[in-house]
Amino acid sequence: MKVAEASANFPPYFGGIGNTCFHNAAELANLGHEVTVFSSKTGNEEYHYPENMSVRLSRPLFRYGNAVFLPELLNIKGFDAVHVHMPFHFGAEMLFFSSKANRIPLIATYQMDLVGEGWLKHFFRLHRETVVKPLLRRASRVIVSSMDYAENSDISGILKKREGSLFELPNGVDVGKFNPKVKALKLRRKLGLEKDKVVLFVGALDKSHYFKGVENLVKAFAAVKKHEAKLVIVGEGNLKQYYMEKAAKHGVGSRTIFAGRVEDEELPQYYALSDFLVLPSTDKAEAFGLVAVEAMASGKAVIASNLPGVRKNVEEGKTGLLVEPNNVKGLSGAINYLVENESTAKRMGINGRRKAEEAFDWKKIGAKLEKIISGVLGE
């Protein structure tokens, strides 16, 4: 099959949707299909992609956050199927018209609702009614990362009518790359964490990812009883300085390490040096929590917000702990509990690794995606 994969952003940009697009494309290519990725160029950094797939990153004519205008998407030809990862403002609608004009089946993966504040909230609602819903009604297939999220999303009514053409396909993890055998002794020494408990956060620190809940995490960490515990925040973005100032304000500046952006090959070591991961997302803009799955694959417990989609991956008491969104006191209590109960955290990590192998291996997910696309072409 000749398949076009498309997303608003793509590695080296640090983000969950681009990462999912990358792995979907890579697994299809590994299965012998001819795959071309279309996305936006976000910087001048070099990135080495697998040789068996083609990646076409273009400078957008217009960009606002993760909304990008790529004119070449209006002329997608010569493919057996187009797979778009949404949200992708401007791109999704161009791919819809292009695929219809060229009679190419369109498969749409709906990753998350966009929430927003102020005028953005109203824009997202208008865009959802005038673009997203009509597109999802007419797409050949619709994919969601979990039925739990789909049933609680803003487009649940549309998805309920897609019985037979709606598929659950979770985001995944490289279980070979992220695994409990990874060592991080050198990194612990480098960061001065030889004897410390390490609480880890991984995520983008920009305005587009406001919902990651970093400010709540900093507030909660200030109430952690054991002062030998350290908070390590991996990620970069235009809110990093703001969060650093908040950490200092709440008295945990000296106990918080802002590691900045970490290269892909080094990221497994950060999971390895941690005792557990915290994903304190504030609203349903967090639909899956890919970093939680990476932590589970690494054999680490996870504390996460009790949100649709996320709560299906992090099982309360089994692979981690769930806390209500924006409950700083509850978040602090959960962190304290795992800091003080090492054996419980380790047991949860073992369970998490088992679940990652069974449910989130990218190879298994790639095979399922191949079957979904093949089903469209067989009609």
From TrEMBL:
Q: Which domain of life is it from?
A: Archaea
The record ties this protein, via PANTHER family, to: SULFOQUINOVOSYL TRANSFERASE SQD2
Q: Does the keyword Manganese apply?
A: no
Recall the GO molecular function terms of this protein's record. Answer: glycosyltransferase activity
In what residue span(s) does the Glycosyltransferase subfamily 4-like N-terminal domain sit?
14-152
Protein's UniProt keywords contain Transferase: yes
Tell me where the transmembrane regions lie: none
Q: Which UniProt keywords apply?
A: Transferase
Do you know which InterPro entries this protein is assigned to?
Glyco_trans_1, Glyco_trans_4-like_N, Glycosyltransferase_grp1
- What sequence ranges are listed for the domain Glycosyl transferase family? 187-354
This chain belongs to the protein called Glycosyltransferase family 4 protein
